[in-house]
Amino acid sequence: MGALAVAIGAFGAHGLEGRVSERMLENYQTGVQYHMFHALGIIAVGLTATVIGGSALLGWAGGLMLFGTIVFSGSLYTMALTGMTWLGAITPIGGVAFITGWILLMIAAFKL
């Protein structure tokens, strides 16, 4: 997932400049940043599972981070590439998934 974030970011930096509006390029880069943050978050879920053992909380945390990446970052990527600004309406759903995933990871970690 991290490698994909790097590849998507490189495409945006080298392939989109001058082809999409500055605002859409900013949206795209926001998607890349959150994609990378949550790739690291999923690694944190895996490391936590290694230390404390697997749990439903950790499974949900990782799943929500993945879902959030698909919805949040994916909607921003698609919006920048296609101009379909209505996708901005679903972006917050991914944000809520991110927040919930991090909260579940913290709860699982504090149960140590």
Automatic annotation (TrEMBL):
<feature type="transmembrane region" description="Helical">
    <location>
        <begin position="60"/>
        <end position="80"/>
    </location>
</feature>
<feature type="transmembrane region" description="Helical">
    <location>
        <begin position="34"/>
        <end position="53"/>
    </location>
</feature>
<feature type="transmembrane region" description="Helical">
    <location>
        <begin position="86"/>
        <end position="110"/>
    </location>
</feature>
<keyword id="KW-0812">Transmembrane</keyword>
<comment type="similarity">
    <text>Belongs to the UPF0382 family.</text>
</comment>
<dbReference type="InterPro" id="IPR006696">
    <property type="entry name" value="DUF423"/>
</dbReference>
<keyword id="KW-0472">Membrane</keyword>
<dbReference type="GO" id="GO:0005886">
    <property type="term" value="C:plasma membrane"/>
</dbReference>
<dbReference type="Pfam" id="PF04241">
    <property type="entry name" value="DUF423"/>
</dbReference>
<keyword id="KW-1133">Transmembrane helix</keyword>
<protein>
    <submittedName>
        <fullName>DUF423 domain-containing protein</fullName>
    </submittedName>
</protein>
